UniProtKB/TrEMBL annotation, chain A:
Keywords: Oxidoreductase. One of its GO terms (cellular component) is cytosol. The lineage of its organism: Bacteria, Pseudomonadati, Pseudomonadota, Alphaproteobacteria, Hyphomicrobiales. It comes from Phyllobacterium myrsinacearum. Belongs to the GcvT family. Residues 613-883 form the GCVT N-terminal domain. Residues 176-438 form the FAD/NAD(P)-binding domain. The keyword Oxidoreductase applies. GO terms for biological process: tetrahydrofolate metabolic process. This is Sarcosine oxidase subunit alpha family protein.
TrEMBL record, chain B:
SUPFAM superfamilies: Folate-binding domain (SSF103025). This is Sarcosine oxidase subunit gamma. Gene3D superfamilies: Heterotetrameric sarcosine oxidase (3.30.70.1520), Probable tRNA modification gtpase trme, domain 1 (3.30.1360.120). It comes from Phyllobacterium myrsinacearum. Pfam families: SoxG.
């Protein structure tokens, strides 16, 4: 194969030069070239090494069906492997390398695998690494030993480890009609749809529209087909109701007429404009889809068919017409159908030298004979290619007589000198998206191909995707499918010879004797013999065949291999191809980068939720951590301070004087309506209808099954309005829970719910000096014990900011929650700090908050873990006996009152060592595995108030275990220490401090 | 009176951003001078609520899903059955609505502090917003005046179209900074100005 640039032709810009490298060597091409066309023009024929056998492989196709020519694109430290050279547009500075070879593409040591062909046949892994253990030899151990070597030897490109610096984005699009493909059918379908006024999106995977017309020798309306297509596309793109997307591959078809597409926005450019994404992930919701996806030429399987220089006939044509590249000096075509003659006509016009056309058919039409004659090609009828001769590239082929009745070859072999063999085994409609959409493809005996299944959504196929293979029929079908109008469309005039679209039913040329390997799936190195082997070993179903041999499972999804593979299996089973069936295509039609799917979330996986005081926290040495989406201060650390030192300092300040903590993250729900109180009586276990206006109450919710759901305080702001607070983590769930009951269970209740979490900034002021701090800064209301008793609510001002203050305590100290409009959060926070200066007020973070509540035995999500009951948590006192509520019917089930249930206790470390959260509670003094656990630690800390390491735990027979010694064991982190089980009320059990 | 603090903080940087050399495709602003009040009707009281909103704001809304109107800085739109956002640059908006809508007709909640109002204006507004929200921003799918409630991942947004190329977005305040940054990234390719 000695490819070269033709002196003219192609849609490349010959006036400009593009420089790029492949395997470190500099090459040049022209704008409009793909990497494949540019390398071919430079005489490069060897593009890569095959997956398993490391056989030399050249370019085989000219588009997204390419199985061989996969390369890695390098951009600094970033590697993008397995890019099809046939689709990769070159640009200045493009750096590429070949794959799956060492040390070089020319001299690959793993080519030795070719000698191990019989061993590496289908099912190699299963046979070699699965089986009975023989002594110390277990097959899994053997696999573990060999795996790394096998993985290194096999496979495609190597992914890099450098972070991808590009950005990606998503686009949501809506249209009346989506047209996929811009060949003759797609263009006319889009035009017809657009003329009705419909909103139309047209998606074309290639850089330019035109499809098959781009490489056609036909005249359309008297003009070159490619020119006609370009003008038609430009006219469509100019319509206000049409969005024309090029470089956009529609890769997935989902229910509800939702399709996904990948647009190459800028990765074909040497320089990107600021803010431009590399790729864009389209989600298109359409009323109707027109799949004008064309057809893929399929090869004929024959011995030696994978050497560089053997290509699809249409690919040879496209390189000549579209890129001005002759794929060989002496091209031979091998075919079972007429389309190769149309290709020969176009190639001859472009200046490609065609030496011979080998046709399995003994009789062909006069038009075909004329074309062969005009092209100066020898016609070798009734023959088949039975072998190739190649070093790194093709030098000659052997042909033998072929009996179309028996499918056997016979007679003397004849050698034909050729450096490029274009093969055509017929055409398979590109039904991938239609198959994804659902339904079973239907076999067409004339085309020897599967046609699209019956539509189960509003989609149609048009043109060759629907089985129409000549341009006149394709135009007609496209124009008809684009509109529901019954008016006969006006079609372009086509000047082209008519051909018979039916191929001879020949899929494989089996040699009379043992010969070279004949490949079916080039990308996964699956041979025709592998398929026969699968049959002999009992894998007859196409689904089993696919998985056993990996036929059609590579990144090309078997675009060139599925039908030949099925045909071979059908032949050995003695059944027809439709009886053998086919597998269903799955997304993606072409590979999609994860970055594109992540879209704008790449590098920024989830949003950040910030309290109104967030900036203050950061400016004042807060170390934050993520709690769900929230960023919350963990500690306010001083230089050189550990987390434990910081939270102990903060918690001690609260117990001794006063501290403030940001509680804006608490869920807050506005509940309004005439039935608001009745509603709360139903969702809380305790009574709220008796709560006076201006007072708050601690409430407990159960799930329907009697398990505790959430807790929090709810404030009565008026007879008909409440402000409910929930735990931070459960805010969304509680909102949904309440909305469900209002909408579906109690629609008669007149209650409205609104999330107001973001409306209020909340600051808890806690400690013996808390009241003094408020007295120093709050105006418009008193905060003395009479005016603001425990669980009381007052309204006042801090500065000129309106505030609402509720006296409640999570810390166990005298404490208040000060709420203001979120926009004033920082002002109020700073005013409180200023007012607290005389008392050495200190901000405290979640660690200190946790410490204070552990000392008090107050529960949070660690104890309300979806398994505990109110009884387990010693909250039975909150269960009303006067009314029903959610969960009241189920809470008394025997299992929920079993005396063996875990219940809440406190733990005190007896060895003055910290206790790990999650530790199991065991009775053994010595750590052992497995231990007989009878409980677990839910939260642990150092208690500055007690001067000890303490914890809360859920323990079997909890209350009756108080006073016992046990051990907290955490074998995972190597910790085992003695603890005393105590009451969960470890500090100020009488509550005198918070009521003071 | 203290000035409410914007949640956008240091991420609000007036000036031109992104590919502004190629022109300004969008202008982004935070509307800090408006009150945002949610009005919710009971079953059967929607006409009365719409009348009251019209009386208070002068904006007469049709009784159909998502219908709305805007005039200058005043706007009102539905975003869920019986639920409306009423937005106006007046501090007593909530009081006036509360007087016009008794509890028997509906409920009122002032969300001014809880929602951040972002205006997206410019010829590329449909394009950029389509990157973030899975709704149809074309004018025939999203007519002028109408409102929508939608999501960008975890971020809820109420959106009203106020003219052919202007959308007012109302996002939860605590998510506003994160969303603002995402919006800026999405707008970068068309060049945008922050005012």
């Amino acid at each position: 194969m000695t490819a070269s640039r033709l002196s003219k032709g192609g849609r490349i810009d010959r006036a400009k030069t593009v420089r790029f490298t492949f395997d470190g060597r500099a090459y040049s091409g022209h704008p409009g070239d793909t990497l494949a066309s540019a390398l071919l023009a430079n005489g490069v024929t060897l593009f890569g090494r095959s997956f398993k056998y490391h056989r030399p492989r050249g370019v085989f196709a000219a588009g997204s069906d390419e199985p061989n020519a996969l390369v890695t694109v390098l951009s600094g430290e970033v590697r993008e492997p397995n890019v099809r050279a046939t689709e990769l547009e070159i640009h200045d500075g493009l750096v590429t390398e070949s794959q799956n070879r060492f040390p070089s593409l020319e001299h690959d040591v793993m080519a030795i695998n070719q000698l191990a062909g019989p061993i590496l046949s289908a099912g190699f892994y299963y046979k070699t690494f699965m089986g009975p253990a023989i002594g110390p030899l277990r097959s899994t151990r053997v696999w573990m030993f060999f795996e790394k070597f096998i993985r290194r030897a096999a496979g495609l490109g190597k992914a890099g480890i450098a972070a991808d610096p590009d950005h990606y984005e998503r686009m949501n699009a809506f249209c009346d009609v989506l047209v996929v493909g811009t060949g003759p059918a797609g263009l006319l379908a889009a035009e017809a749809a657009a003329e009705t006024g419909a909103q139309v999106i047209i998606a074309e995977e290639r850089p330019v529209a035109g499809g098959a017309l781009l490489a056609s020798a036909e005249l359309i309306d008297g003009r070159n087909a490619a020119v006609w297509a370009r003008e038609k596309a430009a006219a469509l793109a100019g319509l206000p109701n049409v969005r024309f997307l090029t470089r956009t591959s529609v890769w997935g078809y989902y229910d509800g007429n939702v399709l996904t597409a990948l647009e190459h926005v800028s990765d074909f450019k040497p320089n990107r404009t600021k803010g431009q994404a590399r790729q864009r992930h389209w989600v298109i919701r359409t009323g109707k889809t027109i799949l004008a996806t064309g057809a893929f030429e399929r090869p004929i399987v024959f011995p030696g068919n994978d050497c560089p220089g053997v290509m699809l006939a249409d690919a040879v044509r496209r390189y000549a017409i579209e890129y001005g590249v002759a794929a060989g000096n002496n091209v031979t075509l091998f075919t079972n159908n007429d389309s190769a003659y149309e290709a020969a006509r176009a190639m001859a016009q472009a200046g490609v030298n065609i030496v011979a056309i080998v046709d399995v058919r003994a009789d062909i039409s006069g038009a075909c004979i004329e074309i062969a004659s005009a092209a100066g090609a020898e016609l070798v009828l009734g023959h088949a290619v039975t072998g190739t001769h190649a070093g790194k590239t093709l030098s000659s082929i052997t042909v033998q007589h072929f009996n179309a009745q028996t499918g056997h070859v016979s007679g003397a072999a004849r050698e034909i000198k050729t450096d490029c063999l274009g093969v055509s085994g017929g055409w398979s409609p590109a039904i991938h998206l239609a198959s994804q959409a659902g339904g079973k493809p239907e076999w067409d005996e004339d085309l020897q191909a599967f046609l699209p299944p019956e539509a189960n959504q509003n989609w149609v196929t048009a043109g060759s995707a629907a089985g129409y293979m000549d341009t006149v029929s394709v135009f007609s079908d496209g124009a008809t499918k684009g509109t529901s109008s019954k008016t006969k469309p006006k079609l372009p005039a086509v000047d082209a010879p008519m051909f018979d679209a039916s191929p001879a039913p020949v899929f494989e040329i089996e040699p009379a004797a043992k010969s070279q390997k004949a490949f079916v799936d080039f990308q996964h190195d699956v041979t025709a013999d592998d398929i026969r082997l699968a049959y002999r070993e009992g894998f007859h179903s196409v689904e089993h065949l696919k998985r056993y041999t990996t036929l059609g499972m590579a990144t090309d999804q078997g675009k060139t291999s599925n039908i030949p593979g099925l045909a071979i299996m059908a032949d050995v089973r003695g059944i027809s191809i439709p009886e053998a069936g086919t597998t269903r295509f799955r997304p993606p039609f072409t590979p999609v980068s994860f970055g594109a799917i992540a879209g704008e979330r790449y590098g920024d996986l989830r949003p950040h939720r910030l309290t109104p005081m967030h900036d203050w926290h950061l400016a004042n040495s807060a170390r934050t951590y993520e709690a769900g989406l929230w960023h919350r201060p963990m500690i306010y650390g001083s230089h050189g301070e550990t987390v434990e030192q910081a939270y102990v300092r903060e918690a001690r300040a609260v117990r001794q004087s006063v501290g403030i903590v940001d509680v804006s993250t608490l869920g807050k729900i506005d509940i309004q309506g005439p039935d608001a109180a009745a509603f709360l009586d139903r969702v809380y276990t305790n009574m709220f209808s008796t709560l006076p206006v201006g007072k708050a109450r601690y409430g407990l919710m159960l799930r329907e099954d009697g398990i505790v759901y959430d807790d929090g305080t709810t404030w009565r702001l008026s007879e008909t309005q409440f402000l409910m607070t929930t735990t931070t983590a459960n805010a969304g769930n509680v909102m949904q829970h309440l909305e469900f009951y209002l909408d579906c269970v109690w629609p008669d209740l007149r209650v409205h719910l609104t999330s107001v979490t973001d409306v209020w900034a909340g600051t808890a002021v806690s400690g013996p000096k808390a009241r003094a701090v408020l007295e120093a800064c709050v105006t418009g209301t008193g905060v003395d014990n009479a005016t603001l008793p425990f669980m009381g609510i007052v309204h006042g001002f801090i500065g000129d900011v309106p505030v609402m203050i509720c006296r409640l305590s999570f810390s166990g100290e005298l404490a208040y929650e000060v709420y203001c409009g979120a926009g004033f959060g920082t002002q109020v926070w700073e005013a409180l700090l200023e007012a607290g200066k005389p008392f050495d007020i200190m901000p405290y973070g979640l660690e200190a908050l946790g410490t204070l509540r552990i000392e008090k035995g107050h529960v949070t999500g660690a104890e309300i873990d979806g398994r505990t009951t109110a009884h387990d948590l010693h909250l039975d006192w909150m269960l009303s006996k006067k009314k029903p509520y959610i969960g009241s019917g189920m809470k008394d089930r025997a299992g929920l009152n079993d005396e063996n249930r875990l219940s809440l206790v406190g733990l005190i470390s007896l060895d003055n060592q910290s206790i790990n959260g999650g530790s199991h509670i065991v009775s053994d003094a010595a750590p052992r595995e497995p231990a007989d656990s009878f409980g677990h630690v839910t939260a642990a800390c150092y208690s500055p108030a007690l001067g000890k390491y303490i914890a809360l735990a859920l323990v079997k027979h909890g209350t009756s275990m108080i006073g016992n010694r046990a051990y907290a064991t955490d074998l995972l982190r190597g910790k085992h220490g003695a603890v005393e089980i105590v009451s969960h009320h470890m500090f100020d059990p009488e509550g005198s401090r918070m009521h003071g | 009176m203290a000035e409410p603090q914007s949640p956008l903080g240091h991420t609000f940087v007036p000036g031109d951003h992104g590919n502004s050399a190629g022109g300004i495709g969008l202008v982004l602003t935070e509307r800090r001078d408006v009150s945002i009040v949610q009005v919710t009707a009971w079953r059967g009281t929607i006409p009365a609520v719409l009348t009251a909103i019209g009386d208070v704001t002068g904006l007469n809304l049709a009784d159909k899903p998502g219908a709305g109107r805007s005039a200058g800085e005043k706007s009102a739109f539905g975003f869920a059955p019986g639920r409306y956002f009423v937005v106006a640059p007046s501090a007593d908006l909530e009081d006036r609505l509360r007087r016009a809508i008794p509890l028997e007709t509906g409920t009122i909640i002032d969300l001014t502090h809880g929602r951040t109002a972002i205006r997206v204006k410019g010829p590329w507004s449909e394009w950029v917003l389509s990157k973030l929200f899975a709704i149809d921003f074309s004018e025939h799918g999203f007519p002028v005046g109408f409102g929508r409630a939608t999501l960008h991942h975890d971020i809820h947004a109420n959106i009203q179209r106020t003219d052919a190329e202007t959308f007012d977005l109302y996002v939860f305040r605590t998510f506003a900074r994160s969303f603002w940054q995402t919006l800026g990234h999405a707008a970068a390719e068309v060049g945008y100005r922050v005012e």
